[in-house]
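Hi there, hope your week has been kind to you so far. Thanks so much in advance, here it is:
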Amino acid sequence: MKEDKNKKQTNGNNEDAVFVSRIEPREIVKEMRESYLDYAMSVIVARALPDVRDGLKPVHRRILFAMHEIGLHHSARFRKSAAVVGEVLARYHPHGDVAVYDSMARMAQDFSLRYPLVHGQGNWGSIDGDPPAAMRYTEAKMSRISDEVLRDIEKETVDFAPNYDATVKEPKVLPSAIPQLLLNGTFGIAVGMASNIPPHNLNEVVDATIYMIDNSNAGMEDLLKIVKGPDFPTGGIIYNKKDIHNAYASGRGGVVCRGEAEIVEDEKGRNEIVITSIPYNVNKADLITKIADLVNEKKVDGIKDIRDESNKDGMRVVIELKQDSFPQNILNFLYKHTDLEKAFHFNMVALVDGLQPQTLSLKSIIDYFIKHREVVVERRTRFDLRKAEERAHILEGLKKALDHIDEVIKTIKASPNKEAAREKLILKFALSDRQAEAILEMKLQTLAGLERQKIEDELREKHKLIKELKALLSDPKKMREVIKDELLEIKQKYGDERRTKIFAKEAGLISYEDTIPETATIMVLTKGGYVKRLDPQVYKTQKRGGKGIIGLATKEEDAVEVFLTAGTHDSVLFFSDKGKSYKIKMYEIPEGTRTSRGKSVLNFLSLSSDEKITSVLALPKNGEQQYVVMATHKGVVKKVSATHFDDVRKSGIIAVKLQKDDSLGWASIVSLHDHLIFTTTHGQALRFKESDIREMGRGAGGVTGMKFRKDDELVDMNVISSKEKEAELFVISEHGFGKRTNVKQYRLQKRGGIGTKTAKVTVKTGKLVAAKIVYPEFEGAAAISKKGQVIKIPMAQIPSTGRQTQGVRIMRLDEGESVASIVCF
């Protein structure tokens, strides 16, 4: 619906004025849709995305063309950047000066572009994020390689269009003789789409382009043998060729990039991490600040100092480490928690034919560049041919005039004016207007013999050139040879070595475990369910008979249940009295101090309210056939393959089916041909083969392991390794008496018996509370009381005696105290 209205209004001077308005009602949804699409296409085509042919966005194209127009080639003198920005704004790019100058600055930064297109003088910013100086201070001109981007633009090789105010014309695309889109890459965010193309090495891209010219059916595998991957101006390392292949094939994908870092020793023998390159588009100052923050927040330990020793010769960030630090774990932590490792996400979107945005593969980008060069070379050849034919036409006229010079002079002298002379020459000698004009403008010096010879030689050269140009236009193969020759010339002039290293294998994914040093550690678990992790060094070695030191602050009536040594990276299995099993990593248990209580195990395991942990063991890492053997308080034993515990749910799994009124008390790892030894509170011990227990599934209930006399019960289950020639059974009673006995004194029996005497149990000694198998290489043992007293004594000070003895006092206890457990090192 359209409505026209004529309205008469009277102005302040009482003069009639007529206003004609045209109102056109439209649906707001339709109007918004069309207006937004127009805006989106304007951003996509005219601002944010590069053209696949010259690899440039409009602002970069206009900057280079403006510099070309004012003569700022690489051999020219520098000019103020403000002059260039002003030229770009006034003639081609009606946007903000900041946008133009920022774009120009990036073109001059050797850490942003692999092959900078602008040669800057002054402060153009830094990799630390420092902005460039104001445009009135800096100077610029085109870099040497930019001449290749504008090569032959004056030969009608590309189309021109009116600028924004139709006062001058600007190129729609540049004739670029280099595959600029791949060499320097690009990054742009449009409306509804974005582009992120990495930079590449010129030698590799040129070789790949030449290979495609020679082999139009080349596959991606062929190209990837030449183009190894991105080549960032900041260097770094890229991992996993499979990811690179996928990204190049589809135009989308991510590759892992890491900075180059090396662990070295300084002059004083101290370890340092030296970073010599960082991932692309990472701010070095921000990276250093992030590392410092991690140190201050105590999220990473072992870093003493950070120094930035970078200079004009290259990057060098030195991280000084403490004496007792773990350099590789610290480096792994930095990879995981900082931008020292960063993924680069390919999104190879560019404009095809200057209008249509497409996601392109590596092959497609090279193919479009070759087609662009074919068009440019053909248009250049036609231009050169036309100019050569025009010049040859003039030379033919001059030659004809020189052949009849006397008649030509006579004709000119007899003419009343120049126009008449031209007409007579045209009629008399069958010349064209241009030839006649050239003859009239011919200087007398041309009559000299040498000058005449020059015209004849030039004419022959032009005829030869015309023949060659026509042959070139008629033969596509020759056209491609010209493109190849020009690319090889560019490679020879600008080619350089790759900066970014490519590793074929996938980068080791840095897990939290990789940031934790792999060291020996002690885990303490109390009957009340409190757990903590300790450095073994916190327990100093003492002489036997001492009182020990406070090793744990426990609640009243709480006592230590488990004292386990393992590596920080070991998987730890927790077995509960209900016959269930849970698994966590040792490093997941928080590290505590010697006297701290620790944290409730409920923070890590999904235990029921009436469930308690009774046994803990470290899962084996090697590939041997090994089993988990479990024993209950009523002497039931069960053997299960250790592989059944590889995948344990957070909620736990059933480890053994228990009989009524029984509970799971112990679990250990056994190998083939090992022996088991059960020890009771009354000092009985039973030794039998692991093969006496048949392997069962996790849901089975087990078989009888040992029978007991009245009031006796199982106090410990141990494994005697078949790989060890010498072993002893170390027992300790509740009143602190202990001894060692060679296992050879325990005859091998069948499971299900009551065993033989292993210690003399009296009122003085109290019942046995723990029994452990020890080997000659064991250095010492630590005994811990129910109230947390710990004593660590050398194994040599614990006497080795017979089975029937009570042993010697290992630990002196306060009244009412008793030994809870022991651990051997």
Notes: Residues 144 and 341 are 33 Å apart (CA to CA).
